[in-house]
Amino acid sequence: MKFLLRPTARQAVALTACLDDHRALYNAALEHRRTAYAKAGVSIKYGDQSADLKHIRADDTDGQGRWSFSSQQATLRRLDKAFAAFFARVRAKRTPGFPRFKGKGWFDTVEWPKDGDGCRWDSQPEHPSATYVRLQGVGHVRVHQHRPVRGTVKTISVKREGTRWYVILSCDDVPTEALPATGAAAGIDMGVTSLVTTSDGEHLDNPRHLAASADRLAAAQRDLARTKRGSKRRRKAAVRVAALHGKVRRQRLDGAHKAALRLVRDYDVIAHEDLRVANMTRSASGTAEAPGRNVAQKSGLNRSILDAGWGVFLKVLADKAESAGRKLIAVNPANTSRTCSRCGHWKENRLTQAEFHCQRCAHTAHADVNAAINILRAGLALRDVAEAA
């Protein structure tokens, strides 16, 4: 659960200092690992660095010593996870991507792993009209709680997004709210013209929030490019760009919630394509030795896919389906848009982006509806196999 924080001016300064000190701890721990391996061939682990925290805090009582020990341990675990992911990529023979130092503006989250240890949710229950979260070194920060918290609060995180601050709660024992059964099942096809097309022929609009804000974003980015690095005007221009991107991100998430809720209310079983959005939106530019083809068209398609927010939508849909007791089935998307849903023929059927005409049985349909029917059929087949096993 994510709620907007309303810190005072002094608390906002303290929250910024908290982020800066945790970022400094992350960078120092990374430098420690790099130097130890380069100079002595020694691999430093999380346990070694966690044990050093006591001495670091004692030597810097006005800096590192004022923050929660547990939150600092969480920052060290974050670095440890970065190294674990790096070595996993090396073993998989992928581009490794060695962990990097975090510059200002690239470290915006601090986590407290346990409610009550350096933090406390609903820290002033005697004020029923307002909710507060208590953070060590910051104080009681007011929370704009727009919905009730379900379950038991486990971890608390604070995140900065532009000029806004948010508190993120991770909860255990969250009760499910199963919706009444409808007896209906649907396949959904993700698209750019329509965000979702169902096997029943319904189209959910794609609002294209980024495209709608493109002119304002372009103007703000031009203003940013004209400013001098390190100047006050540049900081203000960067804040304006970040605010516009933040608005687009919130609009996209809001649209994903509404579309997912509509589907979950209408269908007991929802089949969708198992999309790899990161792979689908890779750059088509290629290299100097092997330049890409149709780079401009691929770049435009990538922007449209990312603007539609397929990954965000599918994540929200999975969360809502689990909470509502609905069944979500991911199917292989290969040939679902080319195969005739009536006879199974799959060659040269897609005449245009929206028009489907089977070359064998002459079946015609909207191409996305035809794909959604194929997705539903594949999803139901997978469900039957799983139930029979």
Structure characterization notes:
- The chain has 389 residues and is an alpha+beta fold.
- The chain has two domains: 171 residues, no CATH class; 150 residues, no CATH class.
- It is 45% helix and 19% strand.
- It contains ten helices and 14 strands.
- The strands form three sheets. Strands 2-6-7-1-5-4-3 form a seven-stranded antiparallel beta sheet. It has a five-stranded mixed beta sheet with strand order 10-9-8-11-12.
- A hairpin with a 4-residue loop joins strand 9 and strand 10.
- Helix 1 crosses helix 3 and helix 2 runs antiparallel to helix 3.
- The protein is globular, with a radius of gyration of 25 Å.
Q: Mind sketching the topology for me?
A:
Blueprint: E1 2-6, H1 9-40, H2 46-59, H3 69-91, E2 109-112, E3 119-121, E4 131-135, E5 139-144, E6 152-161, E7 164-172, E8 185-190, E9 194-198, E10 203-205, H4 209-212, H5 214-225, H6 232-266, E11 269-273, H7 277-280, H8 295-308, H9 310-324, E12 327-331, E13 355-357, E14 364-366, H10 367-388
Parallel strand pairs: 8-11, 11-12
Antiparallel strand pairs: 1-5, 1-7, 2-6, 3-4, 4-5, 6-7, 8-9, 9-10, 13-14
Helix pairs in contact: 1-3, 2-3, 5-6, 6-9
